[in-house]
Amino acid sequence: MDLLEYQGKQLFGKHGLEVSDGKAVTTVEDAVAAANEIGYPVVVKAQVLMGGRGKAGGVKLASNEDEAREHATNILGLDIKGHITRTLWIEHASDIETEYYASVLLDRSAKKPLVMFSTEGGIEIETVAEETPEKLIKQHVDPLVGLSKEQALDIATQGNADEDVREGVADALVALYTVWIEEDASLAEINPLIVTPDRQVKALDAKVSLDDNASFRHPDHAELGDKANLDPIEVKAAEQDVVYVKLDGNIGILGNGAGLVMSTLDVVAQAGGEPANFLDAGGGSDAAKVTQAVEIILSNENVKAVLFNIFGGITRCDEVANGLIAAFKSLKPTVPFVVRLDGTNDVEGRRILEEANLPNVQAAKTMNEAAEMVVAAAKGNS
Amino acid sequence: MSILVTENTKLAVAGITGREGRFHTLNNKKYGTNVVGGVNPKKAGENVEGIPVFGDWETTVKESGANTAMIFVPPPFAAQSALEAAAAGCELVIIITEGIPAHDELKLYNTVKRDYPNTTVVGPNCPGILSPGKANVGIIPASFFKPGNVGVVSRSGTLTYQIGNELAQAGFGNSSIVGIGGDPVPGSSFVDIIERFQNDDETELIVLSGEIGGSAEEEAAEYIAEHVTKPVVGYIAGFTAPEGKQMGHAGAIVSGSAGTAAAKAEALESKGVRVGRTPTQVAEIAIEILNG
């Protein structure tokens, strides 16, 4: 789960990283009240999970109440690359002397946490990595030991941080690592990490991603994320424990197992179709679950045809067939379905489907054949 | 030979008394796997259809002689159970559990590497290992596979069944099928398993089935170029995955340009590995090579 800037900053503050005081608001009146309380100048910042907020006009400096009102009015509701701004973060403006970059993430290849630091902050770190890689310092941390102050100081020194703030940078790195560990983050990034004229080191932005698998030990994380901008169908799927990702095409896809579903999307695309979604029905697929899944797929109005691609291991094909019959009874879909059943109890599953004689349902023998049939069915229906 | 799971496997299962754990343990036993025990601190002294249940891993290994552990316990406790199995002396620990926090996996991986270097961990979030005709540890539906000379290593379970089934229908069997799982910090990587297949007399061809996210396939490509003399056929799922979206497996997320299906396929092909564009094509290429 990706966090909004202000949520990340609140986690930073909790673990001892220096951040500006601020307030998250959702109305113009609250924004003005917050700005008055914090004291001018303030920065009004759009809270969306999308880079390039500044260029899109989502970050503005206000030196008095009128400006705060004007900016809040303009930024609330602003569409930043498809993300509608519903929350503003108002914070006291910081004087910036220098901009650094710091992050902690998981290096999957080394199987160790990786700390990155650069004096080239405030720009995209990918650009730094590409154009001046010598200015991006990377060090692995032994996860069984943690990031020591010594190692953090070494990183700050290697990275050429100004000598008088190396101590401060090292403290910030240790705090950032603590955020990463304590909050079960997959990414904790500060860009820019600023040095103020009075030589304080401070996080001016926050990019934090949390591991959903660790939510059982972080009940407080349930409130986080950009709930307002989630796709309503994806929210509903998550509530029903179905992994669903909406895509741009018109062929609804259901399969069992993430790998097989990804592969199904590819095979449909190769057959000239465009998948409308990724849906992994998971292991068990009883009637209720199949019905819910079909309902989720069909709630996307672009769907012109649906493909069921099942290779039963734990999943039993007869159960899926009965589930599909139940789904047809309750939902009465009008779009054509193509069903491919292989694996555990496949013969029985195919027999059940054939006998039910559902309208608009075709059986396919192989995955490739199924893909071709569903692409033709979608074309015929649009 | 087969790899990792053989007729010498003595299996004990943590989570044997749970619904899924019990079902699959008994399935494995029915297949012929030597199941010697189970672990549940609350049910020590009981048995599951004759399989004795012990209170902890140390006792289990001491009493039953288990050399292989299968972990079926829920995510909050799975990494700890795996570590205790390694500490008790199990050479192989297979973690089926899905949904373990990445940081737990990270600590487990590094602790096992430091303290129990002779233990191999496979998974988490994997379907296990099947060596057809010998033993099955995990949830792979064994009836679709038969003994043979194709070694399969895969991040995805159902995709493995799909490819294995196509091979079987063409008359080819498997030495071993290893699911390494789709999580960010797997105990064993493609490279670890491919090295074992390279050294296994019975394996003549290796199928590598990968997916988007991470760089394990790219690392495998480098390794294959330098160390593998047997033919390898690749497959990558996720060509149509949009950037920044997670596709079920925690590992399957594309961020930026690295880790895409196209980049992985290219990395493999640049090292001489033929990559099928569909599971069917993978089987076709494998059959073409095997038929010489």
Q: Can you tag this structure with a few keywords?
A:
heterodimer; A: alpha+beta; Dna Ligase, domain 1; D-amino Acid Aminotransferase, Chain A, domain 1; Rossmann fold; 3 domains; six-stranded antiparallel β-sheet; four-stranded antiparallel β-sheet; 36% helix; elongated; B: 292 residues; alpha/beta; seven-stranded mixed β-sheet; 14 strands
Give your account of this protein's structure.
The complex is a heterodimer of chains A (382) and B (292). Chain A has 382 residues and is α+β, with helices and mostly antiparallel strands. Chain A folds into three domains: 21-92, Dna Ligase, domain 1 (2-Layer Sandwich); 98-223, D-amino Acid Aminotransferase, Chain A, domain 1, CATH 3.30.470.20; 232-380, Succinyl-CoA synthetase domains (Rossmann fold, 3-Layer(aba) Sandwich), CATH 3.40.50.261. Chain A is 36% helix and 25% strand. Chain A contains twelve helices and 18 strands. Chain B is of the alpha/beta class and 292 residues long. Chain B has helices at 19-31, 57-64, 75-88, 102-115, 157-169, 190-198, 216-227, 261-270, 279-290; strands at 10-14, 34-39, 47-48, 51-54, 68-71, 92-95, 120-122, 128-131, 135-138, 147-154, 174-179, 205-211, 232-237, 274-276. In chain B, the strands form two sheets. Chain B has a seven-stranded mixed β-sheet, sandwiched between helices. Chain B has a seven-stranded mixed β-sheet with strand order 9-8-11-10-12-13-14, with helices on both faces. In chain B, β10, α5 and β11 (174-179) form a beta-alpha-beta unit. The longest helix of chain B is centred in the first third of the chain and has 14 residues, at 75-88. The two termini of chain B are 23 Å apart. Classes of the chains: A alpha+beta (382), B alpha/beta (292). At the A-B interface, α8 of A face α4 and α5 of B.
